Amino acid sequence: MKPILKIRHLCIDYETKRGTIRACDDVSFTIYRGEIVGIIGESGSGKSTLASGILKIIRPPGRIVSGKILYYPSDGKCVDLLQLSVEEFAKLRWTNITTVFQAAQNVLNPTMRIRDHFIETAQAHDPHLSKEVILKKAKELFKEVRLEERILNCYPHQLSGGMKQRTIIALSLLLNPDLLILDEPTTALDVITQWYILNILRRIHEETGITMIFLTHDISIIGSIVDRIAVMYCAQIVEYGKVEDVFLRPSHPYTKGLMRAVPSLWDDTSKREAIPGYPPNLLSIPKGCRFGPRCYLARGGLCDAEKQIQTQMISIGNERYSLCGCWKQVK
Asked: Which residue among 58, 96, 97, 329 is least crowded, i.e. fewest CB within 10 A of its CB?
């Protein structure tokens, strides 16, 4: 498999009155062309910050402190996205790398018809494209996301939440990008609409082979669509591997805790256990392992969490990695 994105030692800080918050701390992983990678974690774990770093849209008081984001376009020539100027990156955005943000109602301009969003986006990258060509492509994409052509003449306020989200998905595919980043694309939607959109994304991936990064805090929906999964906790990736391995044989206590907390249709829901405690304050990170105060291995005396200073992920075979030094004891 050929890589499409390599993230190496990415660090992103936010300056606050109380001190510096490292919202993305030494993150490294590889995404291969044609796969769907899921990134899960609690709110505040750093998922959206990571996505914003890839898109190079971190704004003050945030800043990218260090690291590399290596992008491999279809011609194979490696580009470090962090070394590009604003103008150079603008050429890649929407044409090579695009995104679907959460809360689609905040993305669409309420004063513009849907058709004008497509025309403006396409002509911003190629002023010579005619409106007829753009709208023909838009109509084809609307069929892909199961929307009627008449919606092109509507204003955003005339669409439901699910219709807006599907419109944004169609808009993100307008210029045939290599990589699609989906940041909580099903948030605030009802369960039926969530699964409807997931099925659309799965079919688009099967038909086009587009690479996707799917960020969510809802572990119950992600397993059905992704190939590989990264688990984030307290600004770090604590586990990374194929979705079947991570779900069935987790190698980090935090991942294990997430699996124990997910409700199931096949067993007694009263047996589900929430992870005790709360995520740490990023201005006051625990010594050693950041998950230590909430970890069942530490509470059971199987690990001295304060002495576990693991900065590099450990390869545990089968393309799996864990940040837990006691991964063999995770059961």
From this structure: 329
- The pLDDT tens digits for 272-325 are 788 998 889 999 999 899 999 999 999 888 898 888 877 789 999 888 999 998
Give the separation between CA 170 and CA 114, rounded to whole angstroms.
11
Q: At CA 230, angle to CA 228 and CA 234, rounded to 5?
A: 175
* Backbone phi and psi for residue 298, each to the nearest 5 degrees, phi listed first: -70, -40
Superfamily of chain region 3-226: P-loop containing nucleotide triphosphate hydrolases (3.40.50.300)
Q: What residue type is 180 in one-letter code?
A: L
Q: In this structure, what token pair is assigned to residue 109?
A: 């301009």
The per-residue pLDDT for range 124-135, each reduced to its tens digit, is 999 999 999 999
Whether 122 contacts 129, CB under 8 Å: yes
Q: List the domain boundaries for the chain.
A: 3-226, 241-329
Give me the pLDDT at residue 244, please: 93
Helices (H), the chain: 47-55, 86-92, 114-125, 131-144, 161-172, 191-208, 219-222, 243-248, 253-261, 296-299
Distance CA 117, CA 189 (A): 22
Token code pair at residue 145: 């996301």
Give the separation between CA 237 and CA 28, rounded to whole angstroms: 8
In angstroms, the Cα distances linking 245 to 227, 228, 250, 325 are 10, 9, 7, 18
Rounded to whole angstroms, the Cα distance separating 170 from 174 reads 6
What is the rounded CA–CA span in Å between residue 72 and residue 99? 17
